[in-house]
Amino acid sequence: MDIDKVRLVFFSPTHTSRKVGEAIARGYAPKETEVCDLTHGALQPAESVKEDTLTVIAVPVYGGHVSPLALVRMKDLHADGAPAIIVVLYGNRAYEKALEELDAFATHQGFKVIAGGTFVGEHSYSSERYPVAAGRPDAADLEYAELFGKKVRTKVSAAESLEKLYVVDVRRIQRPSQPFFPLFRFLRKVVKLRKSGTPMPRIPRGNAERCTHCGRCVEACPAQAIVKGDECNTIAERCIKCCACVKQCPQGARTFDTPFAPLLSDCFKRQKQDRIIL
Ligand SMILES: Cc1cc2nc3c(=O)[nH]c(=O)nc-3n(C[C@H](O)[C@H](O)[C@H](O)COP(=O)(O)O)c2cc1C
Ligand code: SF4
Ligand code: SF4
């Protein structure tokens, strides 16, 4: 059988899920690609994906889960047995149950999950001072994502019909190796940090002296938590701490000084590998 249409769906405040999703679609090389960027709003209109289309879903991991706002934005994404590739992007710490969650979600929405991937993206909290998987996905990650797309195309072509295109068990994906001592050090430091009562910032801070009111952060924010003209403040109830505003401010006028950043930078230096299953 042949499927020559791809629908690329992503929620990607800092663009790593987007880059990997695009590379997978490139590797699959369909005749037609429809892009559904859910970063700034939900899907419109809410129609069921047809069986002649392969959906690629790429979303970030927040706290070991699929980003809750991504799930909200995808709630109207439906299918009636159409195939899908699901991918989670995580910042080199761990993705825990996120891939399984995305699998359960996509299956519930009516997709047939035929392939899955866990890819590393620069951590949202990464900065020059405290880098965490800085620059990822890099050229090698994107090459691997393209190869993944190619492999899925081969799998689809080899199936006689949609019924014969088998579902993948994403729980069997190989977990990236994690050296014990850095993880232990991280957990010990987190416990110490929590016990110390160190205040945890809930929102980024704005620097009025640096801000030129260019409005880039307002556009970048997926949660409408920044108001035009008042860019140094943040609506705390809306902010999801994605750091899109921090990374996209050309003046360095927004910062998110979480005490987790030095811990992540120190304990997750060793770069994890992307994994796929199909
Ligand atoms: C609130 C929050 C929680 C996060 N939790 C995790 C996590 O549990 N494990 C991890 O490895 N990375 C975590 N990250 C990092 C993101 O998963 C990673 O940077 C991802 O590539 C961001 O995707 P995007 O560029 O598509 O927005 C977290 C980021 C944020 C903002
Ligand atoms: S992106 Fe930076 S400089 Fe531009 S309005 Fe926002 S905080 Fe100000
Ligand atoms: S204000 Fe909050 S939600 Fe909006 S871009 Fe910044 S960190 Fe993300």
What would CATH call the homologous superfamily of the domain at 5-177 and 271-277?
Flavodoxin domain
Bound molecules: flavin mononucleotide, iron/sulfur cluster
| Beta-strand share of residues | 15-25%
User: What is the succession of H and E elements?
Assistant: EHEEEEHEEHEHHEHHEHE
Number of helices: 8
Number of strands: 11
What does this structure look like?
- The protein is globular.
- The strands form 3 sheets. Strands 1, 2, 4, 5, 7, 8 and 11 form a 7-stranded mixed β-sheet that branches. A two-stranded parallel sheet has the order 3-6. A two-stranded antiparallel sheet has the order 9-10.
- With 278 residues, the protein is of the alpha/beta class.
- Helix content is 31%, strand content 19%.
- The model has no long low-confidence stretch (mean pLDDT 94).
- It binds flavin mononucleotide and iron/sulfur cluster (2 copies).
- One iron/sulfur cluster binds at residues 206, 211-217, 231, 249, 251, 253-254.
- One iron/sulfur cluster binds next to helix 7.
Name a few traits of the molecule:
278 residues; Rossmann fold; 7-stranded mixed sheet; two-stranded parallel ribbon; 8 helices; binds flavin mononucleotide; binds iron/sulfur cluster
Question: What is the gist of this entry?
Answer:
The chain is α/β, with parallel strands linked by helices and 278 residues long. The chain has a domain at 5-177 and 271-277: Flavodoxin domain (Rossmann fold, 3-Layer(aba) Sandwich). The protein has helices at residues 16-28, 68-73, 98-108, 139-158, 180-196, 216-220, 244-248, 260-267, and strands spanning 5-10, 32-37, 48-49, 53-62, 65-66, 78-79, 83-90, 112-120, 205-206, 254-255, 275-277.
